[in-house]
Write a structure and sequence with these properties.
Layout lengths: L1 E4 L3 E3 L1 E2 L1 E2 L1 E3 L3 E5 L6 E3 L3 E3 L3 E7 L14 E3 L6 E3 L2 E7 L13 E3 L14 E4 L4 E5 L3 E4 L11 E2 L7 H4 L1 E4 L13 E7 L6 E5 L1 E6 L1 E3 L1 E3 L2 E2 L2 E2 L8 E2 L4 E3 L8 E2 L3 E4 L5 E9 L3 E2 L6 E3 L4 E8 L24 H6 L14 E6 L12 E3 L10 E4 L2 H7 L7 E4 L9 E4 L4 E4 L9 E6 L4 E8 L1
Parallel strand pairs: 1-6, 2-7, 5-8, 6-9, 7-10, 8-11, 9-12, 12-14, 13-14, 15-20, 16-21, 22-32, 25-33
Antiparallel strand pairs: 3-4, 15-17, 18-19, 19-21, 23-27, 24-26, 28-31, 29-30, 30-33, 34-35, 34-41, 36-39, 37-40, 38-39, 40-41
C-alpha cells in the first residue's frame, strides 16, 4: 500500500481495522499542518523499509511545528516484523511515539532516507547542543585526567552518554612540558544530528618530580689535606623518571666528611642538577645525597711502572755535615710535643749499587704538626742538573704538591704552615735534568 493525501489523516477501520499487508506500507500527509493519527495498527511483513509514515512531509528540515504523528494504539501501533519502520514527524514533544526500540534523528526532511536497519523516528526540529570543556592540569608522564565541562540544549531525554559527548586532546603521557598548554577538544558522536556549538579548553602539563638521584659514585684518593672528591655519574639513577627519557647529572659537588685517611668514608653530594634532553620536564626534589669512598696513604696504592731516570747517588764524600743539618729546620712558631717529623731521601727501588745511602734524619727537638720546613741538601742540586736547571717537584704519583705543602724555589726549601690530620706520609719526587730523588716525609 502506498497512500498520500494533503489533509490530516486517521488510520482506522475501512472494511478492516488498520493496515495489515504482506508488502510495504507507505502512508503520507503532505499539508504543512496535517497530522497523521493511528487509531488502528499499521503492520507489514515486508523486508527492508517495511513501513514508512510521513506527517506533513512538505515541511522542510528545521520546521518543528505543523503535522505530527499521533500513535493512539500504543506499543503495537507500528509493527514491522521482518524489516524496519521509518516515522517522519515535526517535534518529539508534540509526537506520540507509543512504541520502543528505535533510534532518532533531528533536523531531517521527509526526503531523507537513513542508512542502516534501525527503526527510526526522524524529526524536523533542529535543536542546538552547546558543549564546553573545562581547563585541566596534569603532570608530565601521567595519563590525561577525565575531562569535564558543560552541555546545554538536550531535548527528548537525551544525555551526554546517548549523544556521545567527548572531550579529548592530542597529548600523550610524555608530551613535553614545553608543548603545553594543549587544546582540549569538545565533540560528540551525535547520531541524533544536533547542531553543535563547541567550546574548547586547555590542559597545562606540569613538571614531574624526581625524588632524588642515586647511583653517583666517588673515586678513592690519596690523602691531600682536603675533602674534595672526584665523582662518576655515568650510573646515576633518576628516581621517578619516565621510561625512555634521557637524563644526565648536570652539576654535582662531592666532599669527604673529613680529610683524614680511612676506608669507606662518607662522601656528601650537594648541588645536584639535572641535564639531558628531558631535563626540562622534571623538578628535582632533593639536590643532595651520599656515597662512600676511601682516602688512602701511598702505601695503599700499587707502585706505578718504573720510569726511565738516572738514579741520584750520594757518595759519602758528597754529603757534608752542613747538608745533613739542612734537611730539617725547625719553624719559629712550632710547639714541642711527642711527635717528630721524619724526612728521608730514598734511593730508586731498582738501584742496588753499593755506595748509595739512605738518609733518615730528624731534629733533636720534637716538632708539632703546626708546621715544619726543611731545605734540600746542596748535593742534590749539583748532581741533579745544577742550579741553572729548574728543579721539578711533584708527588710520587706525578701530581702537584698538596695545598698545605709549598716548595720555595728561591730558597730551595719545603714549607708547611700546617699539616692536616692524616696527610702523612707523603712521597715527593725531586727531579732535575740529570737525576731524580724521592723524599719521604712521615711521622716518627
Amino acid at each position: 500500500i502506498d497512500y498520500s493525501q494533503t489533509n490530516a489523516l486517521s488510520v482506522g477501520t475501512v472494511g478492516v481495522a488498520g493496515i495489515n499487508t504482506a508488502g510495504a506500507a507507505k502512508v503520507e500527509t503532505t499539508g504543512i499542518a496535517s497530522d497523521m493519527t493511528l487509531n488502528a495498527a499499521v503492520t507489514s511483513a515486508a523486508a527492508g523499509d517495511a513501513i514508512i509514515l510521513k506527517a506533513a512531509s512538505s515541511n522542510a528540515a528545521g520546521v518543528s511545528t505543523g503535522g505530527q504523528l499521533i500513535n493512539n494504539v500504543g506499543a503495537t501501533g507500528i509493527s514491522a516484523a521482518n524489516g524496519r519502520y521509518l516515522v517522519y514527524s515535526g517535534d518529539p514533544a508534540a509526537t506520540t511515539e507509543g512504541v520502543s526500540g528505535y533510534s532518532k534523528r533531528y533536523n531531517t526532511a521527509a526526503s531523507h532516507t537513513p542508512g542502516g536497519t534501525d527503526n527510526m523516528f526522524l524529526y524536523r526540529i533542529a535543536p542546538t547542543l552547546t558543549i564546553t570543556a573545562n581547563n585541566a592540569t596534569r603532570a608530565y608522564g601521567q595519563a590525561d585526567p577525565v575531562f569535564t565541562g558543560t552541555e546545554s540544549g538536550y531535548i527528548d531525554g537525551d544525555t551526554a552518554a546517548s549523544v556521545g559527548v567527548n572531550r579529548t586532546t592530542t597529548a600523550v603521557f610524555n608530551t613535553p612540558v614545553a608543548a603545553g598548554p594543549v587544546t582540549i577538544n569538545s565533540g560528540a558522536t551525535n547520531s541524533q544530528n544536533y547542531a553543535l556549538v563547541l567550546g574548547n579548553g586547555t590542559m597545562s602539563i606540569t613538571k614531574a618530580a624526581i625524588s632524588s638521584v642515586s647511583g653517583i659514585t666517588a673515586a678513592n684518593k690519596t690523602v691531600d689535606g682536603n675533602t674534595n672528591a672526584t665523582l662518576n655519574t655515568s650510573a646515576a639513577v633518576y628516581n621517578g623518571s619516565v621510561a625512555g627519557d634521557v637524563l644526565t647529572v648536570g652539576t654535582v659537588t662531592g666532599n669527604f666528611n673529613t680529610p683524614n685517611i680511612g676506608n669507606g668514608k662518607t662522601v656528601y653530594l650537594t648541588g645536584i642538577t639535572l641535564g639531558g634532553a628531558a631535563a626540562d620536564n622534571y623538578t628535582l626534589l632533593s639536590d643532595s645525597g651520599t656515597t662512600t669512598a676511601s682516602i688512602l696513604t701511598l702505601h695503599n696504592l700499587s707502585t706505578p711502572a718504573p720510569t726511565t731516570r738516572n738514579t741520584l747517588r750520594f757518595e759519602t764524600s758528597d754529603l757534608r755535615a752542613a747538608d745533613l743539618d739542612a734537611l730539617l729546620v725547625k719553624t719559629v712558631a712550632a710547639a714541642k710535643n711527642s711527635t717528630e717529623i721524619l724526612v728521608r731521601t730514598i734511593r730508586d727501588p731498582d738501584e742496588q749499587q753499593a755506595g748509595i745511602v739512605s738518609i733518615a734524619l730528624s731534629g733533636e727537638t720534637a716538632y708539632s704538626h703546626a708546621g715544619f720546613q726543611f731545605s734540600l741538601p746542596a748535593g742534590i742540586f749539583a748532581q741533579a742538573g745544577g742550579d741553572e736547571e729548574p728543579i721539578r717537584i711533584s708527588t710520587f704519583m706525578g701530581q702537584p704538591l698538596p695545598s698545605w705543602l709549598h716548595y720555595d724555589a728561591v730558597a730551595k726549601k719545603f714549607v708547611a704552615a700546617t699539616v692536616p690530620a692524616g696527610a702523612l706520609p707523603l712521597h715527593v719526587w725531586v727531579q732535575g735534568k740529570k737525576a731524580a730523588v724521592m723524599l719521604n716525609i712521615s711521622d716518627m
